[in-house]
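We read letters as residues; the integers encode the fold. Take this protein.
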Amino acid sequence: MTNRILTTHVGSLPRPQRVVDQLFAQDANLNYNEAEFDRIMIAETDAVVAAQVDAKVDIVSDGEMSKISYATYIRHRLTGFEIGEMPRATPRDLDDFPDFKERLAKLGATPKYHRPICTGPIAVKDLSGLYKDIANLQGAVKKRARTTNQFAPS
């Protein structure tokens, strides 16, 4: 039992450029090498878990390392979706700061990528990506559990 509130977070953590490059290559199916993709996702999941452990986060995640967006990866795993391409909208709260919004856009914060559009019945298509994500996170956590008692019951 613990006498404090455990910490965690929800959502994406910053992705290194080599991850971003792999994600966009996979999404567009351009120069995509699955073995290289997997190797990079394993390494960067390990790194993001290590950073969370170092920051004393109690319940770690993979930081959505293998996904461009929480809303896009479903087209790889489920049927019933067609792909569309549209610019990523910047948050509306940036409308009050047009110079900053423009600077973000110039830095690539508004890339185009394939967003799923539901056009039919939804069913499981391929869960291999899910199993890889789980294995990557479990491997990173297991490695940290050997070097710290952070994941041991208290």
In short: Residues 15 and 133 are 15 Å apart (CA to CA). The chain has five helices and two strands. Residues 34-54 form the longest helix (21 residues).
